[in-house]
């Protein structure tokens, strides 16, 4: 059976994503922290259910408009604002990472979603100045946003039907993969 035809039989999607993110992270010239990889795998697991990726409007699924949600979040009470910022940041991370190629078909490019995600993580840091026993964790997520999305994109490409799994991976900045 070819690698692309194999089923993923891991009972825990978060562990599956963690293992693959960590695999690419170890090949990086500037590896990310274990906490960052762990958190990123949780994000990927959380949005493994596509229902969390869409809003329901009049009984129909509609893409979440993250820029508008970011602006609206500033009007929310503190706890709701914190939750909204986390969701916006995480969705931006996943869009720019795992679903990077799908953004090529959109009018708004990856840079927009990257900026929205970084802003949301920076604002979230003021609500949660520490996470996973790491000071300024979400501020670090904002500064490592591009590196995290690169790893997510590599995991996505690894399981894409178009990608030859036998190809060697060299991890560089700016989405250059060879």
From TrEMBL:
<protein>
    <submittedName>
        <fullName>Uncharacterized protein</fullName>
    </submittedName>
</protein>
């Amino acid at each position: 059976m070819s690698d692309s035809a194999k089923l993923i039989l891991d009972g825990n999607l978060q562990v599956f994503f963690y293992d693959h993110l960590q695999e690419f992270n170890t090949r990086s010239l500037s590896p990310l922290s274990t906490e960052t990889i762990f958190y990123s795998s949780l994000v990927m697991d959380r949005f493994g259910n596509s229902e969390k990726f869409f809003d329901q409007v009049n009984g129909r699924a509609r893409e979440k408009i993250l820029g508008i949600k970011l602006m609206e979040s500033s009007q929310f009470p503190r706890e709701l604002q914190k939750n909204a910022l986390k969701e916006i940041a995480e969705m931006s991370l996943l869009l720019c990472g795992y679903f990077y190629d799908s953004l090529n078909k959109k009018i708004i490019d990856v840079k927009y979603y990257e900026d929205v995600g970084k802003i949301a993580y920076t604002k979230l840091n003021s609500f949660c100045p520490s996470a996973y026993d790491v000071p300024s964790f979400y501020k670090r997520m904002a500064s490592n946003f591009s590196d995290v999305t690169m790893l997510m994109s590599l995991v996505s490409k690894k399981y894409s039907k178009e990608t030859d799994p036998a190809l060697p991976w060299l991890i560089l900045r700016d989405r250059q993969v060879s």
